[in-house]
Amino acid sequence: MAIPGLRRAADISILKVVAVAILGLVVLATGTFAFLVWSTWKIDAVSTARQTQMARHVIGRFRYQLAHDQESATVWDDAVVNARGHGTPESLEWIDANLGAWMHSYFGHDAAYVVSPDGKPVYAFADGETKDTNSYASIETTTAPMLGRLNAALRKGEPIGIEEGIDSPGVTDFRFLNGRPAVVSLKPIVSDSGEIEQVPGEEFVHIAIRYLDGPFLKELETKYDFANMHFSLSDEAAIHKTSLPLVTNNGGIIGYVVWQPYRPGLAFLQSIAPALVIILLCLVTVVGIFIGMLYRRAMANREQEERIRYLASHDSLTGLLNRAAFEARLDAALSTADGKPPQVAILYLDLDRFKPINDTLGHPAGDSVIREVGARIGRLLPRSASLCRVGGDEFNILVPYDQVDAIEALCAAIVHSVGEAIDIDGQSVFVGISIGVALSPLHGTERAELTRKADVALYSAKASGRGCYSIFGQHMDALVRERAEIERDLRQALADPGQFQVLYQPKYFAGTGQVGSVEALVRWQHPTRGLISPVYFVPIAEECGLIRELGRLVLEVSCRAAALWPIDNIAVNVSAVQLRDSAFAIEVMAILATTGLSPHKLELEVTETAWMDSSDSCAANIRALRAAGIHIALDDFGTGFSTFGRLHETEVDHIKIDKMFIDGLGKDRGDEAIIQAIVELARAKGLKTTAEGVETKEQNEFLTRIGCDELQGFLFAMPMTEQDVSVLLSGRARMTPRLSVV
């Protein structure tokens, strides 16, 4: 028989448990809801800020591009001559073709005017056609002050409007023109050779106009996923809208670009309930997939033989023909029974901007892109064509043709199709493609000859700006020959290295202003071509296998010089090709022993590509070098795609902040926050930081204030010779502008 007191106590205990459980569920639900609301607000705020930053960047770039476009025609002797002779039909026709109609058709400018030195219009173009010069009166009130400012600056010799990528002076600003927002850019028409005498401030001026409403905003909506974007004279920013003011050079606002921002947090909150169901279904699906994988593995042995036969002639990722099968088909197509050369086209295709996808989204996403590109190309080909994946992001096509126009149309269709967005797990990614074409019998009838010329044409397409196609022409061989000559001269120069000079750029401690270390930089003084930039010859050295000899030369010269200097270390750049050499670490130690430089005084700068190389040799070399006391620096930090994550699992000693971020200081691009985050991350990991490319006092003050360890750039010193470094270090000089120039 149950005791009532015990039963009552048990009931009370159960009620307490239930009450605690209910209370816990209520607290959990309330807390979860509050967290979701807070998270939604934070996520939406970040998303809106990013969209605003993107819109600011795109519109600012649009403004910069207008001035940049003008320079293609305004910095030209012919433009000066024809502007002066505008009264003749021939000159006016030239002006219309190059300064008006071409600007409209090629760059999309909405209007263009040419104004004489006395401010009178001599040419007008608007609404897609040449206009009477009297139409200039509709914009004269707006452009006259800008024209006066430009002429005044030209007379004084002020470098107005000149920035990176823009070489001639000018005035570019936002204006409200003819009832529409616009970017107005004024550029003087000047001689590119300098052989035409011009009086500063008395030049003809080209005025270009692009409106910011209508097609421009539609393009932004389509390309960057802005919703309901429009222009407004008033600030319509509200809880459901975001606006960006269009600020003129003098700080005035002509209006606002307004759009409805995408709010991922709110969308998540609205969909959380069905998402839980989807998660459950996904779990069931995962289990089902796992069971399916077990079954497929059990069946794998039965299919192995058939799979091997298939892989002998097909690419495993895309199912397309492989190189061997493609070459067999090409040989068969070129060998005809009647002896008449067949009309077949060989297309070499290579993806553009593919590597960032692998780096950011991973190789599975890259594989998905490759498969999708192969499918898109395949849908465009006739049945008689053969499509091959050579490897990586390269494809080959063999297609019979009757007219060359058909091949050109096919290439254009492929470029357009591949350039459209590719959806990867709900994220849109974009790649481009470059195509080289060789035609039989026009360019040859042998496989080796045709494939070589198709490869040369592909190289030409890449050099022409990518995202296009090129049909082989004899002039393309000249480009290949020039590169071969550079490679040959490079081999000869390395056999007698007197043409190479190693310069050194000091790096200064931000706290004390003293020289802490130097960076070695190689220069090539070619006997006939003059000074060749390392940006040009180092990639060639890497491609043709000469970077090991060049790197060994620079390392040996640098270490020998640094052994005599009272510095903390000397930094030497190392290529990924060198790191893949299994004997590289041994070679470095041998050079240190020969030159007498202590290992802890050597710092090797590696790019993120080399640092993230997954090969065993790279990782083994880095481990061996660090174990010997040699420091490893990560160069151009922040420009890659996986750097921040990798820092938590891979050790380096030093981070160099890329010049791109330093240049952005003070330009409202958010680079200050990025640089500060890099410095704080490095400090948390115990890494030293160096800012490269410091050129202004403001940059110096900001970097010193946030705790950057070292500073390097033209503000302090240009690259200098070994003798100049010795003179500099004799007094352990502090930072002063431009210590020496070489």
Description:
The protein is α/β, with parallel strands linked by helices. It is built from 24 helices and 25 strands. The strands form 5 sheets. It has an 8-stranded mixed beta barrel, surrounded by 6 helices. The radius of gyration is 32 Å and the shape is globular. The protein starts with a helix and ends in a 13-residue tail after the last helix. The N terminus and C terminus are likely disordered.
Low-confidence stretches: 1-7, 737-742
What structural category characterises the helix and strand content?
Answer: alpha/beta
Largest sheet: 8 strands, mixed, barrel
Helical content class:
40-55%
Instruction: Give me the number of helical elements.
Output: 24
Q: What's the rounded overall pLDDT mean?
A: 83
Strand content: 15-25%
Q: In what order do the strands lie side by side in the largest sheet? A: 17-18-20-21-22-23-24-25
3D shape: globular
Strands, total number: 25
Whole-angstrom Rg: 32 Å
Distance between the termini: 105 Å
Quick summary of this structure?
By secondary structure, this protein is of the alpha/beta class. It has 24 helices and 25 strands.
Keywords for this structure?
single chain; 742 residues; alpha/beta; eight-stranded mixed barrel; six-stranded antiparallel sheet; 24 helices; 25 strands; disordered N terminus; disordered C terminus
